[in-house]
Amino acid sequence: MLKLLKIEKSFGEKKVLSDVSLTVEKGECVMLFGASGCGKTTLLRIAAGLEGQDGGAVEKSGKTAVVFAEPRLFPTATVLENVTAVMRRGKKERKDAERRAAEILAAFGLGGAEALYPAELSTGMAARVSLARAVAYDADVYLMDEPFKSLDAGIKQTVVSYLRGFLSDKTALIISHDSAEAALMGADVYRMENGMLVKPENA
Q1: What is the spatial distance between Cα 53 and Cα 11, in angstroms, rounded to a whole number?
Q2: pLDDT tens, position by position, 126-147
Q3: DSSP letters spanning 92-123
Q4: Which burial class, exposed, middle or buried, applies to 77 when counting CB atoms under 10 A from its CB (0-12, 13-18, 19+)?
Q5: How many whole angstroms separate alpha carbon 162 and alpha carbon 128?
Q6: Could you give the strand order of the β-sheet that contains 141-145, starting from the edge strand earlier in sequence?
Q7: C-alpha to C-alpha distance for 114 and 135, rounded to whole angstroms
């Protein structure tokens, strides 16, 4: 569960968020749209605890995973090592972790890429590794900033289909610029306008 309660945020004299309240329950996916600079990413960062708010409160239950707009992979670690880095890896658990990571990577169309390094990946591949790592972490709350923007149509359908099933018992807040993604994810839709959260009439 994620609750944002009357969130206020300004940068200098610029009001970015004004009285923003949103509740996302377990098993619910909310997608957030809006023009660039409208406060979407700031709201996500506040929800993640990476940015402080000027007013209001954030309540979350369980572990939180964050997927940033730009993949933040460990440059000296392989694809497999990047994914298993968030998993328990005692001596007895290492093989299980590697097996699970390989399964997730294969589901995202990255089978055979386990030994590659981030510098060898395309932008879309790096984005999928970032998503695979978040899935491997197996959190309760997922906060994602434009997770599908670098994916072509075919692989996006594969990734979204997997995530829709995976997130079915999670709490998810996803920023997007593509309204078609909301339909694919079966998500509730909100829009940021003038620092406030609005649910479109046709959503």
Answers
A1: 10
A2: 999 999 999 999 999 999 999 9
A3: TTHHHHHHHHHHHHHHTT-TT-TT--GGGS-H
A4: middle
A5: 12
A6: 64-67, 141-145, 171-175, 29-33, 188-193, 196-198
A7: 16
Closest to 145 measured CA to CA, from 44, 17, 58: 44
Strand duo 196-198 + 188-193: pairing: antiparallel
Helix (H, G, I), strand (E, B) or coil at 161: helix
Tens-place pLDDT, residues 146-197: 999 899 988 999 999 999 999 999 999 999 988 888 888 989 999 998 889 9
Question: What are the distances in angstroms from CA 23 to CA 1, 26, 31, 76, 195?
Answer: 7, 10, 12, 38, 17
Q: Which amino acid is present at 72?
A: R
Q: Which residue has the tokens 């932008």?
A: 123
DSSP letters, 64-92, are EEEE-SS----TTS-HHHHHHTTS---TT
94's CB contacts (< 8 A; 6+ apart) are 84
| H or E element that contains 150 | none
Instruction: Name the β-bridge partners of 15.
Output: 10
| Alpha carbon distance 50, 32 (integer Å) | 18
Give the model's pLDDT for residue 89: 63
